[in-house]
Design a protein that fits this description.
Layout: H1 3-21, H2 28-49, H3 51-58, E1 59-67, E2 73-74, H4 76-84, E3 90-100, E4 106-116, E5 127-137, E6 143-152
Parallel strand pairs: 1-6
Antiparallel strand pairs: 1-2, 3-4, 4-5, 5-6
Helix pairs in contact: 2-3, 3-4
Length: 158
């Protein structure tokens, strides 16, 4: 075997071993930090452009939204249409933690959210709760939400 052929064969074998054993060069901690930052940017977009536009920017085309015990809302465009027809309330959230799979293609974030009236953004929350977003890395390296789950806190009794 010629030296060039041996080098090529060794290169192919090494690549095969890496793929077969699931080894990757993903820096999971860096990906987690990037995903948490992406969720913070998603929140900032909600403040700047409104929730409907922010969700349109950060949801994957085939995303599913689960909230309030209602039926799932499927598809970025459907979510956008429903949110655009809403009350104009201000939705903000605080991302608390992220995790990313060792494969580097899926992750999740969770945190708390608040919904406030547009006339009283500094006033009491109309509702609040916790959320979990499941994210999928896109071909261009960006993260998009594929599942948005909200869990509203029960109303406080006076």
């Amino acid at each position: 075997m010629k030296p060039r052929s041996r080098h090529r064969a060794a290169s192919i074998l090494c690549t095969f071993i890496l793929v077969a054993t699931g080894c990757s060069s993903i820096d999971v901690e860096a990906e987690q930090a990037a995903l948490l930052q992406t969720d913070r940017e998603f929140n900032q977009a909600s403040l700047e452009y409104g929730a409907a536009k922010a969700f349109h920017m950060y949801l994957a085309q085939d995303a599913i939204m689960l909230s309030g015990g209602g039926d799932p809302i499927t598809g970025r465009e459907t979510v956008y249409e429903l949110m655009s027809a809403g009350t104009g309330n201000i939705l903000t959230w605080t991302p608390m933690k992220s995790e990313v799979a060792r494969s580097g293609d899926l992750g999740w974030t969770w945190g708390t959210y608040e919904v406030k009236s547009p006339g009283a953004p500094e006033g009491p929350a109309l509702s609040s709760g916790n959320y979990v977003n499941v994210w999928r890395k896109q071909a261009d390296g960006s993260w998009k939400v594929i599942v948005d789950i909200g869990s509203k806190k029960p109303a406080e009794k006076e």
